[in-house]
Structures are given as C-alpha cells and as structure tokens.
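We store sequence with structure; for instance:
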Amino acid sequence: MRLHRLSVTAFGPFGAPQEIDFDALSSAGLFLLHGPTGAGKTSVLDAVCYALYGAVPGARQSPGTSLRSDHAPAGTYTEVTLELTVGERRLEITRRPAQPRPKKRGGGFTTEKAQSRLREYDSGTGEWAALSRSHQEIGEEITQLVGMSREQFCQVVLLPQGDFARFLRADAEARGKLLGRLFDTRRFAAVEERLADLRRAAEQQVRDGDERLLALAHRMAQVTGGAVVDERPGEPGLAQAVLGLAAVARSEAREALDIADSAVLAAESRQAAARRVLDEERELADRQARYAESRRRQDALEASGPERDRAQAVLDRSRKADLVAPALGLRADAEREHAAAHAARENSRDRLPADLADAGAEQLSALERRLREELGGLDSARRAERRSAEIAGERTDLERQARADEEILQDAGGWLSGWEPRRAELAARIEASQEAAARAEQLAGRLEPARRRLSAARRRDTLAEQTSTADSRLTAARERRNEAHEAWLDIKARRLQGIAAELAVALTPGAPCQVCGSAEHPAPARTGADHVDRATEDAAYELFTRAEESRTAAERDAAATAEAWAAARAEVSAADAPEPTVDELVGEVDELTRLHADAHTLAAQTHGLREALARAEREHESRVRAQRDAERRVAARTSQREALDREQTVLDAEVARGRGESGSVAEHASRLERKITILIEAAETVRSEALSAQRLKEADDRLANAAFRAGFDTPAEAAAALLDDGGHRALQHRLDAWQAEAAAVADRLAEPETRAAAERPAADPEAAEAAHTAAERTVRNATSALAAVRDRGAELARLSRQAGAEVRGLGPLREEYDRVARLAGLTAGTSAENERKMRLESYVLAARLEQVAAAATARLQRMSSGRYTLVHSDARSGGKRAGLGLHVVDAWTGNERDTATLSGGETFFASLALALGLADVVTDEAGGVRLDTLFIDEGFGSLDDQTLDEVLDVLDSLRERDRSVGIVSHVGDLRRRIPAQLEVVKERSGSTVRLRTGAGAGG
C-alpha cells in the first residue's frame, strides 16, 4: 500500500483546504513530519486513518468529539480525500462526516448525513471511474484490500512508539491484550470459554444426577426408617453406597413380607372359626324365637273361634241371597220406570186443554195430524213475510249510501275548487328552495378559504411577535458566543505561552522528557503570575461550546419561526391586495356563515316541498275519481228503489192472507207448532205410563217366586241378607286369613328342628358376636400391616430401579465430564498436565511473539551495533502464568535480562525495532499486503548521535524494500539530517502545511 496524495478541508486544526503530496515526500525514502505542539501533526495521520476506515484512532473517536475544524467558515464542508495504490489498484477515497450546514430556506442549520465516495483510476482511458457511495461497501472493500482492521493499521502503519515502549516493559497480561488485538486470537479465547462452559455444564449435569441419586437414598431411608448414606454429591462412592442401601432395604422388606403373610393366615383361621360359632348361635336363637312365636299365635287362634263361626254363618246367608239379587234388581228398575212415566203423564196433562185432559192416545194423535195439515198451508205466506223484511233492510241501506255519497260530493267539490292556487304555491316554493341550494353551494366554496385565511391571519400575528422575540434571542446568543470564543482563544494563547512550564512540572530526574527525550533537565521552565492551566482552558472551552450550541439552537428557532410567519402571510394575502386584518376577516367569515346558514335552511326544504306537491297531486286524482263514482251510484239507486216498491205491494197481499188473527204469519205458525208438540208429548206419555205399569206387575211376580226358592220367607228378608262386593270380600278375606294362620302354626310346631331347638338351653348370640368382632379386627390389622409391608417393598423396588437407572445414566456423563474437564484445564492453564500454566490463547500469541522477536532482532542488532538480541521467554514470573515473556540478550555480558532494564535510548530503538518487526509479521499475517508507507511517532530525542545515526541507517535501509518512512518528531537535529520535510504551521486562523524537499519548498 502506497500513499500518493492527501487533501483535507475543515478537518481538525486545518480550517482552509490543505493538500499533501506523499509522492514528493516518498521520493527521498525518509521524510520528517514536524511542527509545534498542538499544530496538527497527529491530525495528518488521523486524516489518513479516517479516509481509509471512516474513523480516527483511539480515544480521538470518542462520543461527542467532532472532526470539524472550529476555524472553518460556516459554508465550508469538512472533507478528506486520499489517493493511494493498494493491490496494484489506484483508488481515491473521499469522506465527509456528519456535520451542520446552513438551511437552504430560511435561517438556522440542519445536520447533513455523512457521505463516502470510492473511485478507481483507469489507466487505459486516463479517467476516474466511480465504484461506490455506500459506507458499508467502501469499508468492506478497503479492509479486504489492505488486509487489516483499523486497530491493526494504527499499530502497523502509524507506529506509536510510546505504546511499544510500554509493550517492552509490560507484563504478560498487557502484552497478551495488545497481541490479541493485532493477531485476532479471539477464536482461541472462544475455544477456552466454550470448553469452560462445557465443563461447567457437564459438572452441573453430574451434580444434578448425584442430587437426584441422593434424593432417592433419602426417600429409601424415609420408607425403611433407617440411616442415610454418608457420601455427598460429587463424591465417587455415592453411587455404590446408594445401590448397597437399596439392596439391604429390599432384603429387609422381603423378610417383613413373609412375617406379615403368616400373621394374616393365622388371623383368618381364627376369624373363620368365630364366624361358624356365631352362625350356629344365631340359627339356634332364631329357631327358639320361631317356636315361641308359633305357640303364641296358636293361643290367639283358639281365642277367636266363636267370632270365626259367626262370620261363616253371615257369609253363607249372603251367598243364598245372591240367588235373589237379579229379581230384586229387575223389580227396582221397573218401579223407577213406572214412577217416571206417571210423572211425565201428569206434566203433559197440565199443558193440555181441559177437554183433552183425559183423552186417550188415539184421540190426541188424530188432533195432531189435523194441525200439521194447517201448518203446511202457511209456507208461502211465511216466505213473503221474510222477503218483506229484507226489502225494508235494503231500503235502509240505500238511504245510508245516498247520505254517504252526498257527503263525498260536497267534500270533493269544496276541495277541488281550491286546487289550482294550492298547486301554484307549492311549485313556487320548490323553485325558491332550488335556487337557495345553488346559492348555499357557492357560499360554502367561499366560506372554507375564508376560514383558512382567518386561521392563517391569527397565526401570522402570533408568529410576528414570536419572530421578534426569536431575533432578539439570536442576537443575544451570537454576542454571548463571540464573547465566549474570544475569551477561550485568549486563555488558550496564554496557556500556550506558558506550556513549557506546565510540561516542566511533570519532569522527573532520570526520566526522558516528553518533548526532546533527554533524561537531563538542567533548566526547567517556571510558571509565571499570569499562567493558565489546562482546567481553566477546558472550562473556557466548555463555556464556548455551550454558547455555540445555544447560538445554533437560537438560529434554528429563529429560522423556523420566520419560515412559519412567511408561510402564514402568504396564505393570508390575496393577489394585488393589501393584507387584511383579523377583524376584517372575522367580519367576512361571520357574514358568509350567516348567508350560508340561511341558504342551507331554505335548501333543506326542497325534498319536503316536492313530497308535499306529489301528495297533493295524488289526492287531487283520488278526489276526482271519488266524485265520478258517487255520481254513478246515485243514478243506480233511483232505479233500484222503484223495483223494490213494486215487489213490496205484491208481498203485502200475500202476508195478509196468511197471518189470520195473529200479528204476523210467523207468529201464527209458531202457535200451531207449539200445539202440535204438546199433543205429541201427551200421546207418548199416555202410552209410556200403561207400558210401565204392566212391567212392574211382572217384576213383582218373578221376585216372590225367586225368594221362596232361595229359602227366604219374604223378598224383604232376602234383601236384608245381601252383602255388597266390598263387604263380601272383606269377610271372605278374614276367614281365609284365619285358616292360613292355623295351617302355618301347625306346620311350624310340627318341624323337628324347631321342636329340638326349643328343648335346648337359651342361645347367647351377643357373646358369639363379640368374639367374631374381635377376630375380624385382628384380621383387618394383620391385612393392613401386610399391605403396608407390600407397599414399602414396592416403593423400595421402584426406588431401587430408579437408582439403578440414575447410576447407569450417570456413567457416560461422568466420562464426558472427565474428558471435558481435562481439556478445559489444559486450555485454561490450570491443569497439572500444563506444566507452564499457559492458556491456549497465550500459547498461540507466544508463537506470534517469537516471530515478532525474530523479525525485530534483525534491526535491533544493527541499531545497537550487534549488542542486543530480543528473545521470547515462556518462563513463569512469580505466581503468574508463563508464555508471553520478552527478554533482551546482551552480547557484551552474555546475560539474558528483562527488557524493563534497558535505558531510555535503548528502550526507544528496541521498541522501534519491535514495532518494525511487528509490522512485518502482521503484514505477512494479513496476507502479504505490501506496506510502502510507514509513520513513526516521537522518541528520537532520547538517542545520542551515534545511536541516532544507526537508527536512521536502519530506517533508511527500508528503502531497499521500496518503502517510505515518515518520522513524527520535535528533535531539531533531525531537521538537519532529513532533507524531505512536511512542516505543520500553527496560526490563529488555523494550521497549514508546508512541503520541503532537498530542491525547495511548497505550501
């Protein structure tokens, strides 16, 4: 990688555009970058790093740090452009950081996003071709071409000598951190962490298995009531102890089960014997009780003998009376029938005329036939009379219809007379509402813009006041910013005047000076009365920063307010017209609102008026139609009345002939019908009475004959002996019960077992019950004990199976844990097998450190005239781990000693050799990318003339590999020794660069 040209604008201390021609500087192979403290030497290197990676090295990229120059004008963009050749490709990288810029409209600032651009030079066409504008694509492309990350680039290309001096004196841990960043050994650290995680996970699995195994042992102890194993989780003998405990517990459980089985068998035998005794006693007691009960029932039967005989006699007479019962029923029916017929005859006799009271049935029937003949002759008169009544109803309906039609004609005539004025009025109102609708739409189109103008006018007036206030605040903020800026620049200038005294405070006898590198300090500067320290400068700069932020915020607020005020004025103003006031616009909006409301109210009536006109037209058609229909009905009713009059005359003559002396034909017919009905009923009652008397006589004869045959003297005696069905069943049931009881008692007393039981002593079932209950209790207790023993045995068997499964499952886990723990201990350096206690990452870095020491020794021997050699040491120091030790071998003494024993000058050229060697190794590690431009920062002031010559010879020898080396230093002697120089000049308006070569100088 070779740098050709660097261009910076408004970057760091450089306010104006600056361009650095590295081709001119590199032509000499060795060039010097110098300038006063704070001028911006490091900013040149920062610009190179920023162009490549979009960020500056180290802490200078911390949050809140701005890359923009405070000396740059507001309209100038911060920009860095780097032209370089890498991988045989000539590229140009341009980057702009995120930065504020003035707004294109209005005042104030806005933040512009960061921009990047990558171009490649085409030697065939002689033009630059654009490749990308993406930050990510450009970053990936540069990292791939250079082959190093930003951190590696800053260590390898921008060699920070202070860092390598500390690297020489650092312990193994500090060296490991730096080498880890350069060679990216995070994958080996990740392997260590992964193995440690696997070891912890496997250890936890084994411990969890031991915990589960120990929990099973505790549960076995709870079941057996014995002791728990003494081993703890993690101890190797825990599994065998738990298995032994399980075996002993199972053996004891089997013995307890045999004992419990024997106890249950003995208890069940005793319980069966007690049960047999109890059954025998209960059976004896039952038989003795049955015999005693049978004797008592036998005595009761003998006492009820007379009552049984009387019941049997009553039942026998009832059975004889049952033979007379049908005749008694027939006689009662005949008597009831004759009484009913006689009552009906007497009732009909009262309704007959006196001359017919004693008439026979034949006479009454002949009279009934004559009246029927008379009634048949009245049918024609009755039809005429009904039709006459119908005609009267029809006349009434005609009169009612005539009155209704008259009302319809009068109402229709009155309504139709006012139809035309009403229709004209509705049509006029509809036309007016339609005009109002058009007017309302026009006013609505004017009203909304008027309201927006009114709102804009109110915003305009409010924003006018806010604009004035914002301008005042901006003026005050600018004045405060300028005052704070001048104060900070004054304090900074005063501090720079006394910076030598401030640096002298940190001088220590024997330690190298930070400026010249000398270990001797004959005349250190002293602070004056007006000296300003760094804290005062930082406080002034903080005040200036806050004032700048306040000014920027005030500018943004003022610009936003002015922009809003202009927009409001533009919205209010009309073409070629003065801006109206808020009151004028309020009056305009109110007037338009009133007119629009009136027009809208009138327009809303359009639909209702159209509906009213349609209803009126429908009513007009209905009334005209009803008027015509009523006129037709009036004409039809006249002819209908005439026909009814003619028919009524004929009917009146017919009715007069048929009604006789009655008021009407119907009344005359009704009287004849009643007479006929009375005659029919009277004739029937006469016949029924004679028939029932004959039947009653026959029934009396049959009853007397039946009573005599049944053995009764009179029918009344037979009737008295009769029993109803309920009484007969009850009496028979009592006799059957007595007979069944006697048979049952006799059978019971005749049983041999019952008689033998009565002759034995009285039974005692209570004592047998108590003995049986005790035997059952014993069986239950023995059975419960047996179940408990079985449950314990089953639980112990289950726990034993679980313990066996756990032990089998823990075997592979323990083997995996032992294997992973051994690997984790080896990689972490804690294992006894790792004799030097080196971690895996340290082991890899130790190999890299050996390569770096070998590459550095080649240059260190030249710089030290063959005296010193850098070697890697893996020896342990105290209790610390080994692997990253770095020693120097002194050829003059032949001893190997720590690099911390080197003097200041020796430390410088040793660290320089180490830095160059590290650059070679990292370059090879990055894929062999050629680094044609290197920068070395400070430290040359600690060398004597001879050593300085040797160091410069070594650096000059780098040209043999076509490299150019830039030295950043304050040492004045280097300005005489190195003709090619890049000077950074510090000025009040910002720093500038000047290029000096052996032939001349450039700015």
Remarks:
- Confidence is low (pLDDT under 50) at residues 999-1003.
- The CA atoms of residues 147 and 926 lie 5 Å apart.
- The first helix runs from residue 22 to 26.
